[in-house]
Design goal:
The chain has one domain. It is built from 9 helices and no strands. It is elongated and about 50 Å long. By secondary structure, it is mainly alpha-helical. The protein is 75% helix and 0% strand.
């Protein structure tokens, strides 16, 4: 039976699995996933936000509840990197870049981006995968004041969240073809 009930059920299974955990675990999954990404674990934060937006579009999650948790997780992780940068200097960035294919290019790219954009890096750096986790350490290294760092980190994180949350919500509202 092409296009029948059984075919429709099969198509919705992956989304159904995500919806099943979105209840009480959805917010904690978003918090934990993004906090771990910003601590340096290879977790795709954009995918988490896209799914969050999709689920919000279906009425399963609310941005007004998710955003404070996201900010808590990301800013806490970024603050750890900030203080490591403040205490250990650029050596923190070099140590993290050792895990990349070309550590010298990694250090150079992060430092060039920060020197070119300055404090604006904290606002738009969330959109730069691969170096966004290192920007807080550089802010600490370059002695940015902690209150200014937190303010810019909150604003940059909020913008990053809104871009991908709204995109996920929009994509979730598109009709299913097939």
């Amino acid at each position: 039976m092409v296009g029948g009930r059984r075919a429709q059920e099969g198509k919705s299974r992956p989304v159904g699995s995500v919806v099943a955990i979105s209840g009480p675990f959805g917010y904690s999954t978003i918090f934990l996933g993004l906090a771990l990404e910003y601590l340096g674990f290879p977790i795709p934060g954009e995918a988490i936000l896209l799914v969050g937006g999709l689920l919000a579009g279906q009425g399963h999650l609310r941005l007004s509840l998710a955003l404070p948790l996201i900010l808590l997780g990301v800013v806490s992780a970024d603050s750890l990197w900030f203080w490591l940068g403040r205490r250990r200097g650029a050596g923190v960035v070099r140590a993290v870049c050792r895990f990349t294919r070309n550590s010298n290019a990694c250090v150079g790219r992060v430092e060039r981006t920060y020197r070119r954009l300055g404090l604006a890096t904290l606002l738009c750096g969330k959109l730069l995968p691969g170096i966004r986790q290192l920007i807080p350490a550089l802010a600490g290294t370059f002695r940015v004041s902690y209150p200014l760092f937190v303010l810019l980190d909150v604003l940059g994180t909020t913008a990053w969240v809104l871009v991908f949350w709204i995109l996920g919500r929009t994509l979730g509202g598109l009709p299913v073809w097939g």
